[in-house]
Amino acid sequence: GCGGNGLVLSATDSRACRKVAVKKIVLSDARSMKHALREIKIIRRLDHDNIVKVYEVLGPKGSDLQGELFKFSVAYIVQEYMETDLACLLEQGTLTEEHAKLFMYQLLRGLKYIHSANVLHRDLKPANIFISTEDLVLKIGDFGLARIADQHYSHKGYLSEGLVTKWYRSPRLLLSPNNYTKAIDMWAAGCILAEMLTGKMLFAGAHELEQMQLILDTIPVVREEDKEELLRVMPSFVSSTWEVKRPLRKLLPDVNREAIDFLEKILTFSPMDR
Amino acid sequence: MSEDSNMEKAIKETSILEEYSINWTQKLGAGISGPVRVCVKKSTQERFALKILLDRPKARNEVRLHMMCATHSNIVEIIEVFANSVQFPHESSPRARLLIVMEMMEGGELFHRISQHRHFTEKQASQVTKQATLALQHCHLLNIAHRDLKPENLLFKDNSLDAPVKLCDFGFAKVDQGDLMTPQFTPYYVAPQVLEAQRRHQKEKSGLIPTSPTPYTYNKSCDLWSLGVIIYVMLCGYPPFYSKHHSRTIPKDMRKKIMTGSFEFPEEEWSQISEMAKDVVRKLLKVKPEERLTIEGVLDHPWLNSTEALDNVLPSAQLMMDKAVVAGIQQAHAEQLANMRIQDLKVSLKPLHSVNNPILRKRKLLGSKPKDGVYIHDHENGVEDSNVALEKLRDVIAQCILPQAGKGENEDEKLNEVMQEAWKYNRECKLLRDALQSFSWNGRGFTDKVDRLKLAEVVKQVIEEQTLPHEPQSSEIALLVCRAGTWKRL
Prior knowledge:
The complex is a heterodimer.
Chain A: E1 2-3, E2 6-13, E3 18-26, H1 30-45, E4 54-58, E5 74-80, E6 84-85, H2 86-91, H3 97-116, E7 129-131, E8 138-140, H4 145-149, H5 171-175, H6 182-198, H7 208-218, H8 224-233, H9 248-251, H10 257-266
Antiparallel strand pairs in A: 1-2, 2-3, 3-5, 4-5, 6-7, 7-8
Chain B: H1 2-10, E1 11-12, E2 20-31, E3 34-41, E4 47-54, H2 57-69, E5 78-86, E6 95-103, E7 108-109, H3 110-116, H4 122-141, E8 144-145, E9 154-156, E10 165-167, E11 174-175, H5 192-206, H6 222-236, H7 252-260, H8 267-270, H9 275-284, H10 295-300, H11 302-305, H12 316-320, H13 323-338, H14 358-366, H15 381-401, H16 408-425, H17 430-437, H18 452-467, H19 473-476
Parallel strand pairs in B: 1-5
Antiparallel strand pairs in B: 2-3, 3-4, 4-6, 5-6, 7-9, 8-11, 9-10
Helix pairs in contact in B: 4-6, 5-7, 6-9, 15-16, 15-18, 17-18
């Protein structure tokens, strides 16, 4: 298939006799190569049941990258092969509640590990969450490569109406695109849980402004500083009473109360409350 | 060849800033190739639309095909093209780019127009159709397939009632030499032949069918199918082929509808729409290209040439106001653009009781569900302190490895802080103490410039030394309690 960051092929490592996924990354300049390799170093040090394992990183024709950081314009990441990803599964509809719980548990377990190493994923979404259909092991993949390898222009100001959708972005990240904290991964994890239970994306805005509107319709804003910032940034879209039109319980009527309670605690507007 | 040389001559090498000022922050829209901005000609103060592409063969192709077509009054005009080096704020160096100056379409997109004019009539719809068809005819006479015909690519010149409609965005366009086979489409408007090309392409790729010496191809008539879909949406406000679920790829039920040409004229909206209009739609949405209405057939159709009054107000204006419908369409577009693939594979999940999952295995070994709020430890206090010490060391590694976004001084201070914390919890570690001496650590900070990668490597060895006598940390904490205590236990 084609991952978001380039061509991804499955292959067999002939030395280690194991099936691997090989991802080709095209690096257009020295700076992005440097950033990508730094990210790769992070990934290679992460060793956990619920993180996709990166075995090695090679240059063209399988050459060793050691000491030749800036000579290549492509790199190949040899990593653990996983049969499918959560996006493919959700494509087919909802998961059972027990599958969703098992996957969510493993997702949080993986997040706890990387957050304890002070690493942020920053691009958590179903397509970056891999599932082994054999034993239902879930692994988080594609660490930060989307940001490093895809050097697309990112809006540094306030909300924009560009075509790029950011369905798993937390309200803080929508307001301040470069304000990355561990809490943004938790927001994305909450959206993913809701999607596993309902088969639908939780907040699927066509653009950032609408994304924020959808969030405000459902997630209450309780802190004064958040209200002040919203009034400054998008005054015409905020209702004067700060009422939510569709609280989570009404938005997800078929989801059981305990899962709703969990979602209400993880999908808070302020990152500090998450 | 002569066309190519003419095109190359038309591209200017001088800086665009000599003749135009550019509004970098105002974006008019986004095509498949990128955002479109406003620029102003300095000599006349005229406003134009500016599209900036990386200078690549694909971009040159887009420019060439658009320039070939742009002589028609229903196609957005290209004023001139510049080849300049441009550096955006997030880039470290300038890159070669094509800057395409086009006429400004002040009237905006077709759907937006329909939703604003709440009295959009069938006559107006037929007028839009005629102009779109004339634009398409012009392309096809040049043997060029547009391949991305959709309402977003139909723009009004201005806001007057009889403003002309023009076709834009040739990012997917291609000369039809009988070799159109690369699947290029956005959902809702995609022709069945393109879906079939996609299906075969995927099967060949995965080896399910051999790569054919005569690959499956489609032709310019895929644009006519898209035209049929656009007419349908204009008339009633929603697409003919749809799915109940918004999805990141074309859902199976929607694909099946497209492949079989199954659509309806629901009574609620279509009872007030003329039979002539329905006839055009039916004849365009034929699965077999040879059965499909031709361009000339559309232009000759009574619906486009009737002197009869077609003043009935269409329901599309009201339905177009329904934000959920528009958002759904836009969402599908955006997702499809970002993820040009269709998953054919059916994946099924095993029930939990028949799965050998490590988490489930551990729960069986423990024999019971964990108590509220309790981690299961091998050692109580020692492991707690040890965990903190290890976490501080990991923070040092993260600080060394993470890309340095800020100023050097701030980063150095952060490294000193993190190292100080780790030092506080790891004073007894001889390996760490010896290593830090070689990095000029004075107990509170580094006095010299630090090679961060080497420091990270050393700290990693310290962590490995501390964890070797015990099980890896991930096993020591056997279970994680979910944040919401009341959520059902796994």
